Automatic annotation (TrEMBL):
Domain Glycosyltransferase 2-like: 6-174
Main location group: membrane
Species whose genome carries this gene: Amedibacillus dolichus
Keywords associated with the record: Glycosyltransferase, Membrane, Transferase, Transmembrane, Transmembrane helix
GO cellular component: plasma membrane
Domain of life: Bacteria
Taxon lineage: Bacteria, Bacillati, Bacillota, Erysipelotrichia, Erysipelotrichales
TM region(s), chain numbering: 236-261, 273-293
UniProt protein name: Glycosyltransferase
Bilayer disposition of the protein: Multi-pass membrane protein
GO terms of molecular function: glycosyltransferase activity
Length: 321
């Protein structure tokens, strides 16, 4: 029987925590009673430096329910790092781990199907949104453009899959070998390989509280997703540069011809246009290259991605790693 660990990153989630805990623990008890998962399965809440009462709620939950475990990170490190901290922690403590957001926008009823697929031999099972009706038009449009653009850039992503997925022990151990600081987990899991499958569900609205991904964070996350997995943007800039050089060769011939044949051209507009256009292209190129250099800078420092301050609940291995 599969020993399941559900990893839930929580950042200022006091508004939804009680409901989330009630729903997940009911599901876990039900699955244990039906012998669908092993008795020592657990819920692991990762507190990502919340400034509200989330950690107190996690501690209380761990004191009341032996199914619950908690990790308190020393500070806010962002969703991806918090999730990674949880997945690293459970990699030797369960057969399979499911990651899910604390607001339960993702349908927990497909967990049974995820486990079934895992038991049939899939090492990774992706939760995929079959529709995005609850998202605003803007979010739907930007998300779809993002998936199309990343595919165009050569990044393999599962369409409409966020971070709701099951990973078996082997996949978790492989994930732990990836040592990068610019984390984009959904891109990494596609790189790991192994047999995988998808389960489909309709995404719900957030139960309460606010999204922790405002537009600014969403854009930088999308940008990270592309620049951490593809160097194609730099290649495009190179070709853009080449194209402009070729164009300017033709322009040079035209300018020489007009000089020799005495064609008079007003000049001003063409000069202004080329200054602005080339200035723009140069800035864009330098900025883009700078972005990659910035990433290298972050990677070479090899700073730890998270620090665990405290563990609560029954952890199989109480070592703080
Ligand atoms: N989260 C986190 N650290 C952060 C921001 C978010 O651990 O710095 C968690 C948050 O508590 C939630 C998940 O990441 O469990 C996804 O956040 P949210 O639901 O706000 O994102 P959205 O669904 O709006 O994209
Ligand atoms: Mg959410």
């Amino acid at each position: 029987m599969t020993q399941l660990g559900i990893v839930i990153p929580c950042y200022n989630e006091e508004a939804v925590f009680k409901d989330t805990l009630a729903q997940l623990s009911e599901l876990m008890h039900d699955l244990i009673n039906r012998k669908a998962i092993a008795q020592n399965s657990f819920l692991l809440f990762v507190n990502d430096g919340s400034s509200d009462t989330t950690w107190d709620l996690i501690e209380a939950a761990c004191a009341n329910d032996p199914l619950c475990r908690g990790i308190k990170l020393a500070r806010n490190v962002g969703h991806q790092n918090a999730l990674l901290a949880g997945l690293h922690h459970v990699k030797d403590q369960c057969d399979a781990a499911i990651s899910i957001d604390a607001d339960l926008q993702d349908d927990i009823n497909v967990i049974v199907e995820m486990i079934r697929k895992y038991e049939e031999g899939c090492e990774i099972v992706y939760g995929v949104r079959s529709e995005r009706k609850t998202d605003t038009f803007f979010k739907r449009f930007t998300a779809q453009s993002f998936y199309k653009f990343t595919r165009f850039m050569g990044v393999k992503l599962i369409y409409n899959h966020a971070d709701y997925r099951l990973m078996g022990k082997r996949a978790l151990q492989e994930l732990a070998k990836y040592d990068e600081r610019n984390l984009f987990l959904r891109g990494l899991t596609s790189l790991i390989g192994f047999k995988s499958d998808c389960v489909y569900y309709a995404r719900k609205e957030r139960m309460a509280g606010e999204s922790k991904y405002p537009l600014k964070k969403m854009i930088s996350f999308a940008f990270d997703g592309i620049t951490s997995f593809s160097v194609k943007p730099i290649t495009f800039v190179l070709f853009l540069g080449l194209f402009i050089v070729v164009c300017s060769c033709f322009a040079f011939i035209y300018i020489l011809a007009s000089y020799f044949f005495g064609w008079t051209i007003p000049g001003w507009s063409s000069i202004m246009l080329s200054i602005w256009f080339l200035g723009g292209v140069q800035l864009l190129s330098i900025g883009l290259i700078g972005e990659y250099i910035g990433k290298i800078y972050v990677e070479v420092k090899r700073r730890p991605r998270y620090a665990i301050e405290k563990l609560v609940g029954e952890h199989d291995d109480a070592n703080i790693s």
